Amino acid sequence: MILRSITRHVRDQNWFAVGLDFVIVVVGILIAFQISNWNAARQDNLIYAQARVRVIEEANANLQLSRDVITRLSEQQEMVLDIVRDFETCGADDDAAEGFMRAVQPLRFIVSLELRQEAINQMLRSDAFLDNITPEDRAQLSLYARRIDRIANNSRFSDDFQLTRKQVHDNPIFKRTLAGDFSSGLLQLALTVSYEEACQDHALNRFLFDRLENAIYIVGLARALEQASREVLISLGQSPSDAPEPEYTP
Question: pLDDT tens digits for 97-143?
Fold first, then answer.
């Protein structure tokens, strides 16, 4: 339609009308470009907002993971210490033997810090977010990424180290039998020697020391993860919950 109008005005040599039509065309093109840019910017902002939500969800997940690990390993430390205290007397008390067998079952399993890093890495490594992220957010998220990366590496190193140590179920003083419930991992341990012999077994005592030392180390990593996750959530305008934690002093 505008083309026909321009053609008619040229034929009539109405140059003012031609100029006006030209201005209308240029303005229309500029408006179309501006609308396209607005839509693109809006889409970019939406994508960034969604990515930011995923980072917040990831930090909250790491916060909850750290608290769960602290709780589980604090309980594990108490189990180990209870066994060690009973081993000091090494008596033939039935309660001590039964308590030892109950406590040693969960000590077979290594508690790891399987923290999440995918969202934070995507946010920082993708060029799509460079124009959206503020310098303050980038600084806080970069710091958080470095901290959790260091925690993850240390946790993997600890897990690998523990796997090189002789596991309690490989000790010949134990045999494995079918468990009465699934919480024991289908199998549970039973002694092939007396309780008095077990408490003097060097390999068992070394295993208990390893578990205690590892628990203390991983709890330290979990507390560092908790602090880092809380701080980044606060910097992103969130209010992380203050869940009670078990108090433990090794």
Answer: 888 888 888 888 888 898 999 999 988 888 777 777 888 888 999 99
Encoding tokens for residue 162?
A: 């523990």
User: Count of domains in the chain?
Assistant: 1
Q: Would residue 135 count as lying in a domain?
A: yes
Distance CA 25, CA 154 (A): 63
Give the C-alpha separation, 51 to 91, whole Å.
Answer: 59
Residue among 209, 65, 214 nearest 148 (CA): 65
d(CA 219, CA 70): 5
| Plot region of 237 (φ>0 → left; ψ -120 to 50 → alpha; else → beta) | left
48-93 tens-digit pLDDT:
888 889 999 999 999 999 999 999 999 999 999 989 888 888 866 6
Domain contains 15: no
Tokens for 60, please give them: 């909250």
Residue 241 lies in a domain: no
Domain with 68 in it: 59-235
